[in-house]
Queue: 3 jobs
Job 1
Amino acid sequence: MKAHGLNPRIRKSPYFQSTLKYGATEFHPYNGMWMPVGYDTPINEYWNTVERAGLWDVGVQRCIEISGPDAERFMSMLTPRDISNIKVGQCRYIVMTNQEGGVLNDPVMMRMAEDKFWLSTADSDMYLWTKGVACYSGHDVIIETPAVYPLQIQGPRSHLIVSALFGDDVLDLKYYDWMKADIHGIDVIISRTGYSSEIGFEIYILGYERGDELYETIMQAGKPFELSPGSPNRIRRIEGGVLDYGSDILVDNNPLELSMERLIDFNKPDFIGKTALQKIRDEGVTRKMVGVFMDG
Amino acid sequence: MKAHGLNPRIRKSPYFQSTLKYGATEFHPYNGMWMPVGYDTPINEYWNTVERAGLWDVGVQRCIEISGPDAERFMSMLTPRDISNIKVGQCRYIVMTNQEGGVLNDPVMMRMAEDKFWLSTADSDMYLWTKGVACYSGHDVIIETPAVYPLQIQGPRSHLIVSALFGDDVLDLKYYDWMKADIHGIDVIISRTGYSSEIGFEIYILGYERGDELYETIMQAGKPFELSPGSPNRIRRIEGGVLDYGSDILVDNNPLELSMERLIDFNKPDFIGKTALQKIRDEGVTRKMVGVFMDG
């Protein structure tokens, strides 16, 4: 038994050919795209990330763009988190909940303009959700899936590599800030975010066509720093307490039992799931996700 | 390069062990579940279906249940098709559209009770869409994903097999009708529907646990009729003009360019996408999907 090759119903990332070239041997379906998940052994990929730096194709974090005059009001309805203080140039980790307070996704939200937000999503289709909510919510918004695809550079040498590529401005980026940049005329958005507990950056290409060119440029610039191709490392993320939507978190979970109180602002006038989450809070959560320490 | 085995993020159908036992060698991700797509060669599977009968695990047609006092009004908003005349015990092929008239899915809708509908969906997450729409639509509905998973028996001998299993009542089922039945205490819903242009039935198990028992029971009953394990056959469906959401149809397509006029009732007071589709109709479609005849 096997999964059917790389079934063409599932989309390929703009970096696909590069990931093959650099040794990707296994792919997972994620958000309707193939995510490369294996190059080296997970243990070698762990040490690459922890001691040097890894370059990960995470184009699967399919981006949802919400824009228009009511973009902030609409965005605020979609998440329990207070987003009123998020400025253009900043990102936030948020949860999105349904009417029962169940977690639908835990994307990184990026404020791209006063009236424009991006959601860099985990593995569930937020286009369908947000577009559905907008049918009757009465907000003047446009919801699209722009052709922007992130790479992640994660690890203690990642700042050396991105500054070699994009200049020293990138070193001024605060944690969860983003900036525009370009290289060889390829426009990108760079954010100080990522799916590891190491220092790291995400580089979103604007457009699909020049993905392999960008990937190659990064690999060349990373050579002196021993940059390795890799993928979101399960050992490091579990060690770092980084949750994974689709395995640790399901729609049956609510943010309170996941200890995400900091992502909920009950003082907001309204958000989807507020009534349900208030009830859960008042009655007390019945189960709680906790970390474990493992020896060995 | 290969897809990563049978990645556990993607769910398995209740018939999974049986499909392995009967020779499934390849699986596709579809609606967040693994769909067995290869047993024999596609050409042998074609002749099995066209000359005898095939048993297909299509548990991936993830079922959405819409129930409650406003279920009919809500369901009617979700599709351009007139559903007011659909009685309990009947099914209909429908399209579901977004605000721009783009096709989100083309499920089989089943009326399970006056106030309860099932959607047996193609490959896009209608839980997220319908649940999103319900946030602000003002309808009193409950939206769930019940544990019901269809098998299809398709082919000219399919009626002989289902009547051997469930009795002669099943022969009275009209095209696109459904009925309740049970075998060895396993409750099922049987419908005269399917993804071939042959005579065929779908059998929805109610519950996950006894899937393999049901599959085995059907295979045994099918022996005298040379029932073969199989999967939705691409040759037969293309030959029969049966469209495939995710390959033939994308969200960029509207029902008018797909020649689905029969699935649109512009006289309905309202449905999602009505304004957009009226505009497309009035201005004329700019492209049209057509069939081709192939010789050889």
Note: The interface with chain A takes residues 1-10, 20, 24-30, 34, 37-38, 98-99, 104, 123-126, 128-138, 246-247, 272 of chain B (CB under 8 Å).
Job 2
Amino acid sequence: MPENNLKPGSTIGILGGGQLGRMLAVAAAELGFRCHIYCPDGESPAFDVAAARTVASYENEAALAAFAGSVDVITYEFENVPATTAEFLSDQVAVLPGVRALAASQDRLSEKELMRSLGIDVAPFAAVDSLNDLEAALERLGRPAILKTRRFGYDGKGQVKIMPGDDAAAAYEALGHRPAVLEGFISFAREVSALVVRGRGGETAVYDITENVHRNHILHTSTVPAAIRPETAAEARALGIRIAEALDYVGLLAVEMFLVEEGTSERLVVNEIAPRVHNSGHWTQDGAGASQFENHIRAIAGWPLADTRRHSDAVMTNLIGADADDWHALAAEPGARLHLYGKAESRPGRKMGHVNRISRKRG
Amino acid sequence: MPENNLKPGSTIGILGGGQLGRMLAVAAAELGFRCHIYCPDGESPAFDVAAARTVASYENEAALAAFAGSVDVITYEFENVPATTAEFLSDQVAVLPGVRALAASQDRLSEKELMRSLGIDVAPFAAVDSLNDLEAALERLGRPAILKTRRFGYDGKGQVKIMPGDDAAAAYEALGHRPAVLEGFISFAREVSALVVRGRGGETAVYDITENVHRNHILHTSTVPAAIRPETAAEARALGIRIAEALDYVGLLAVEMFLVEEGTSERLVVNEIAPRVHNSGHWTQDGAGASQFENHIRAIAGWPLADTRRHSDAVMTNLIGADADDWHALAAEPGARLHLYGKAESRPGRKMGHVNRISRKRG
């Protein structure tokens, strides 16, 4: 039995109280763990399934210290946990997947440089710290191109597309002159993701590659099996493992990729990584031996990883805003597994739940 | 959409805070419900996954009234909730599966009389309210026989076997002269159970019949498929539905039966019913479309029932007392799905968790 592993009954601290924290807490409870959720928002859905809650800001050192003192390991459900918060906590107790993975994913520039250092393709990019930088970058990368803030972007926030004829200064203005990255436009056939889990002892497992469709920059569906050649899928899995190993990662890592078709061949371009359980892995709750949530908890607890094999074909569809009003019809639909997050208020664009439509494995 | 159904975000009250309450709360959370657990024991495992908790006795009317006022429906995880408590609460809010089902299952004599009135076989029995009654009953039913208290028995508690030569007075003494029932001995080949779920609209579904093995009066394993003829299985399912309908039952009902072999034919004898989710249904978490916990929650919430079909063969093994110390090996075992209840203290005879061993469906 490895030294680092947590006994049942131990307490897992989770930074962030959204639906990912909620599903992590449920998975942890099924293995006999207690969860303590730390979140600034007193109305967090994860509070409803946790043994303990702290409502405080990520800068409140007294609250953070008390939290760290009450738990046996800390993880997070979103990558924008301030690095200073993670470092402060990690003086007291292990913070996993790790401060390094957080840092790499919080800054689009570092993230791309890491990929490049690992020999992994990313879209052509250039750092933008001034309007001059932006104009030079547009010259080099061409249009259309996408200007993205280096930090704190998600679900399409903090980015603007620059088309031929668009005013570069207006785009720079739109992002508030923040440090940014310009990305060249990638003409991709499909978006896919790799969900890798890596244990405390370095062992890894990867779920089947997932094909993702976005609407309005928000994930709409994830489908397994993905329409991808076996050799490209193998490459996507290997690439995910390479990133996890480079970051000495512990837990579940999501790698979002573009699948580019060039003549008869396929090529993968990494778009971004998320150092946490991921919306594109929700199908694993009903389509795989063990869910991404369970495997994340097992990994950070130092437990053996559980079966990542897909036993069914699956299509996960997010329920955004008013989509969740159809809960009664979804609850009655054969083969549909409904998951709702218990959010009190439905707002446009808000993720309220998801449904996994499961069918016999063919692919 | 039926009138009685609860919207996501509603609160489900659960009387009792053990592992059944815990697994019900987790299933409820996955459908977007909040749970409020009411239990006299401040160390209850279900508290760790609930949005709200009340620690108070089942006789505390102020606490009960506040509880009823805070929830949209009430259910229970054990059948020994005092009938007065259930009646008190049901003046304020629906208590399901229902006061009638509670009453029927709390008294072995009423239970057997109900079965008989439905034309369902039970072991030969006689009411025992005095030593004279007991002696007359032994004369009529023969030995061995089992003397059971009418109320508050579980896991073999509150019963004593009377063998040829045993002193009847000593047996009566052992049960504290409480109102009892003497049951004739049934020589059965196997024990099986039917798990029936019935919705608010009267619709029913039944899981595959489960074969159960007890050790020291505590459930040891449950196996599906059971070694039972298809026609006997169909009879077991039909009998479960008949009982649920007679009780105007809402939720999951467990019916424990003996399978008696007579020459080449099989006969079913009902042993007892449990008006709640049941240990012999834990395999449904990993072997069926939806678990008994989810279907119980759906039923009491007025939702459509979910798929009860078995997709895999399964053997559920309870982890009693020190069995749970093997958690690391169990967590590493391929095909084994480990469930732990988060109980702080392991005591002999205490249910600490269970493991579902899943394999490809053959039977």
Note: The domain at 124-184 of chain B is CATH 3.30.1490.20 (Dna Ligase; domain 1).
Job 3
Amino acid sequence: MVPNRIKQIWSKGGQAINGWLSIACPFTAEIMAEQGYDAITIDMQHGLVGYEVGTTMLQAMRASGVTPMVRVPWLDPGAVMKALDAGAYGIVCPMINNAEEAARLVSYVRYPPTGNRSFGPTRVNFAAGADYGQHADDEILCFAMIETAEAVENIDEILATPGLDGVYIGPADLTLGLTGRKYRTGFDREEPEMIEAIKHILQCTHKAGLRACLHNGSAEYAARALEWGFDLVTVSNDVRLLAGAAKASVDKVREL
Amino acid sequence: MVPNRIKQIWSKGGQAINGWLSIACPFTAEIMAEQGYDAITIDMQHGLVGYEVGTTMLQAMRASGVTPMVRVPWLDPGAVMKALDAGAYGIVCPMINNAEEAARLVSYVRYPPTGNRSFGPTRVNFAAGADYGQHADDEILCFAMIETAEAVENIDEILATPGLDGVYIGPADLTLGLTGRKYRTGFDREEPEMIEAIKHILQCTHKAGLRACLHNGSAEYAARALEWGFDLVTVSNDVRLLAGAAKASVDKVREL
Amino acid sequence: MVPNRIKQIWSKGGQAINGWLSIACPFTAEIMAEQGYDAITIDMQHGLVGYEVGTTMLQAMRASGVTPMVRVPWLDPGAVMKALDAGAYGIVCPMINNAEEAARLVSYVRYPPTGNRSFGPTRVNFAAGADYGQHADDEILCFAMIETAEAVENIDEILATPGLDGVYIGPADLTLGLTGRKYRTGFDREEPEMIEAIKHILQCTHKAGLRACLHNGSAEYAARALEWGFDLVTVSNDVRLLAGAAKASVDKVREL
Amino acid sequence: MVPNRIKQIWSKGGQAINGWLSIACPFTAEIMAEQGYDAITIDMQHGLVGYEVGTTMLQAMRASGVTPMVRVPWLDPGAVMKALDAGAYGIVCPMINNAEEAARLVSYVRYPPTGNRSFGPTRVNFAAGADYGQHADDEILCFAMIETAEAVENIDEILATPGLDGVYIGPADLTLGLTGRKYRTGFDREEPEMIEAIKHILQCTHKAGLRACLHNGSAEYAARALEWGFDLVTVSNDVRLLAGAAKASVDKVREL
Amino acid sequence: MVPNRIKQIWSKGGQAINGWLSIACPFTAEIMAEQGYDAITIDMQHGLVGYEVGTTMLQAMRASGVTPMVRVPWLDPGAVMKALDAGAYGIVCPMINNAEEAARLVSYVRYPPTGNRSFGPTRVNFAAGADYGQHADDEILCFAMIETAEAVENIDEILATPGLDGVYIGPADLTLGLTGRKYRTGFDREEPEMIEAIKHILQCTHKAGLRACLHNGSAEYAARALEWGFDLVTVSNDVRLLAGAAKASVDKVREL
Amino acid sequence: MVPNRIKQIWSKGGQAINGWLSIACPFTAEIMAEQGYDAITIDMQHGLVGYEVGTTMLQAMRASGVTPMVRVPWLDPGAVMKALDAGAYGIVCPMINNAEEAARLVSYVRYPPTGNRSFGPTRVNFAAGADYGQHADDEILCFAMIETAEAVENIDEILATPGLDGVYIGPADLTLGLTGRKYRTGFDREEPEMIEAIKHILQCTHKAGLRACLHNGSAEYAARALEWGFDLVTVSNDVRLLAGAAKASVDKVREL
Ligand SMILES: [Mg+2]
Ligand SMILES: [Mg+2]
Ligand SMILES: [Mg+2]
Ligand SMILES: [Mg+2]
Ligand SMILES: [Mg+2]
Ligand SMILES: [Mg+2]
């Protein structure tokens, strides 16, 4: 089975850099996969990606060697298992708030006897190798998103879920969840209470022996997150990168 | 009929800034259309765009008010007319090398008696307005690409073609066409002989009372082209903007 | 943020006319959006529309100014939130039968602290404006479909759900739900017991200070519904309009 | 081989009624195919249909028994042959202006030794039957569109082309071609000179022993065309039928 | 209403042969539908098929007369009802483990008063006939997949569910569920304990007066299953058939 | 630049085995690419593949290392160049009948000064490497199909075309072209006159120092062609492999 590059990096003590795809297009996926990321996540929650185009994006990234993951729309067995059968090497699941939800998530990602994933690796058998069924549970990563007050309260029981690899922090939702409309929405929080919350989750996760991931809007914040010890950092996404670069380019012509 | 923003800008003595879409995706088109370009061209020649996705891109840009154009794959009546019926407000046609080809191009873009465009504005009737048939020949722009030695030789006869609005210079092909493999491929030429050739075409065009457009890889070069007097400058494209911004962002995280 | 035309009409004491899209096609959406409806709902329940084409339909309708809504397939957080992030200004949710289901629906539609909608307005940020996050909870409409005996019994508790804007009556299901197979299936009920049921729901809704919407098969019935006081009426759908007009046209040629 | 219903009707002395698809969607094709037309033409010239969706439309109409035809974008061998291999039972080709163009058209539609169609009936072999190769040249219809002054002048030489089944009149283009901008654009001409031109083409065609077809915007005009003796009449199209029915329906609600 | 061929075969004492589609493509569906199967199931669980392409596959198979079924991704009302409205004549639902889940499945498949299926047969009304609503509950087949230890334990209560037509055995998951990782994954079990389990389910099903179906990887095993008395056998799938035939063909050339 | 595996095989004195894709689907392409072929050709002439799906097929095959080629619909510069920019490493062009057509074909495939290919390797730059522009003319294969009497007559002048790599024989068309309807249509000719014609083309090609390719329906015939000395043999295609395997499998169950 083609190995999971994130796990390889971690096994050598490294930290992984993750790209993020919100545009539903195999070519943008192929372009992004050549830019130096270790892993790339297709966002089927807030991204414009549905299952059918998402599958072509997994195909388009296969040659690059980048490890593909999928953020599923919700804690839904059909969505999780279809993403895995299509080739995802990791699942990022939004809004996991307690141990019961974390256990359900793991049960969708792992084959029996660990979980209840149904067997039928239709495409991934070709993309990952014919021995996929034997190794999938060792290679596939399973991340619970921590992004509500309830999740923060239950962080230790969530982290105690067997089969879970770690947590993924969504700072925009976490800020809404912990502080309501007190602050602006978005990533790259600078409020001390939010930084504290983020570091608290990181510490609990490491104490539990699991991996912590942070979603970031900028390279600068991602670099800080790496310094804090995050195991994987996501840096921006295709929509922001494209819009930002295009706007900067038009503005520059108008200024010059 | 919704007016052509490029023609409005020109009528006030202005110069237009054009974006470029090589990714086949309505969402990238919608994103790009919000970044401040005056016009945006869908590249159906070298871009990955075919007719069916190209049409959804025209739909996705409609609300923005940006004037949409299409670069067709080749001097082909079916391709030109389908692009127009789908909503293109301008046609950029590659590799126009002489007066006969320029005349054929115009004949595909203009309705009788000027040309031979077939009548059936199926989608553009909704997007541009029910009076499209009456005003199309006044609003639609028709550009011949000048990108071979033959075209440069025949530049004056090409510019004399009734119904042609102007020329569009493709510097990568023009360099190949004029100098073979002497220089690197690509845009933003710095070789004196290429700058001279580009300025020569610009001058001939203005002398003929037509409009000159230049394809550019960077905002800096586009700004120079505006100084030289180009009427429309294209600045980079979606592929380069996305790839460049993503690579810069990953590199930055790794460096920090 | 681009305002919700339905709310504008209501704030002036008016009633809204809604179109209905069951065909999965951006061009039919664009055509329908130019015919004079105030709002148009994409039917992702019984319509042939899935998420990916549904998104292109939202793009194709954007320029028209018609307010787009989505009927989701079921009370599913992933489906509701993806529709909103893609640009829906209203959610119509089938088969809401009690207060608990209505509360879940609202929680999917509203951001914290009102609900639990996850933050990530990927496309709607472009289509509605960059201030979408601040105003979405005020502009987005949330409708519970009342179409079972259980729902009618629980109508008052459903209507008491904070954050709910109103109810949407599906007469075909309501008739099945209240009377089994006693009557023909379909809209535009003429049975006194069904008219009574419909008017009862309308009155309860208005008593609760909320808005009532009715699905209609014909302009005539929609006009009656407006007289009864419905706040929004849906008139036919694209499938019936196309099939009906085509059949009438063929029949006429054969008769003439 | 599944027989061509148009030829069956003609062999019994009947006249055929043809529907017209300008919307790129298999479901609209399937709906239209159930409304009573004898044949339905997918418009790949002015319609929004490209090759890939066009093929799904042919699939969606197969069960109905309606004879499918394709109007190709232009006199292009690739486009003609791909349409046939995908299942078209008739080709309508725009802008055939002289005998040479008519001969090229026939050569693309007929297998050797009559023409030069390349052999590879990939899909049509399943849809029409395994004996397609033997009978195709007898069942496939080949129509030249007559829609310019040049074509009218050359009508007799066009009609003398071996392998051509008949002509198809496009009244919008024919009016532009014969009279320039003298009259409004569109179908259903009432100007005596246009009616005369149309009848002239009809008579020449019948004199040559071939079939004449007319494009019509309304059932009324199609009925007149049948009285004049046209062998096939097209009645409106999906775009007009949908837009017209929707507008009428909204207007009615507002009036009532 | 177009009758269900499986039910017709069963009513005459026959056994049905089912094909299986895991490739998301209307043309592979059309090809498969011409190869002699009685029924064909589109696999939306482990297959690469999503809703939008799945619908075009149903359209492409309509002309063949093969009875189309859908395996849904999971026990989800939206997925079940959308498959039925799109034209499925049978639902195969994975991982039904107890009576409560079986009852929910039936409630999604049957109209009131038997179940809670929402009324809106948008496409199937065209494909099956305008009387679909009256006969659907008699023609549509509803199968619960038995593939876990829990399901085997609860087999009798599952079989007692009113409205259920039978069970469908997934041998790969059943083996994982009953024996963990003791044996290789896959179909066509030869282990005595698995054969016993399969026959046990078959006997319970027939005792309950319902129908039993088995998924098979090879024609040989399917033939054995028919001898055992299975009412419907699935034979391989499109992916395996294509991959196997291609590999055999390449290997043969290399050997010869 | 990723090297062309066919050229590597030839440079070592080997013969290449080519697969053939007529189904428009990235997953069938990905499956086929794992079955042991050296090269795989996407058939955009008789296959159901258009440009947009064709591009996703190229993406889906990239990881396999199989060399992708495209058979274009016709000798059309737009089609040839779009296929190359999308990633094709070889062009197979139908119906090349004389030196002039062969020269036009080469001019579309090669960059100046050899030909007139326009520069813009939008996707292939990612798939083949950033040095694509420098090496493309050395790696890309250009094949003229020989399939008419005229082509056979002109074989030597065709083979004398600078920049042409070889010829590709289409036996179905060649048989029609040389013998009309005398024999059955299809591949794997057994008639002495056809075998002689095929061997004649092979010998002329080798005498000219170019490469000869043959399209075959079966592994047996492909093996014979290798013995005759063909440099590349195509073995069957996805449609026949799938249909054949499915039919054999159903028939076997019915027989057993
Ligand atoms: Mg979140
Ligand atoms: Mg160029
Ligand atoms: Mg309902
Ligand atoms: Mg015309
Ligand atoms: Mg299973
Ligand atoms: Mg051929």
Note: Chain C touches chain B through 14 residues (CB under 8 Å).
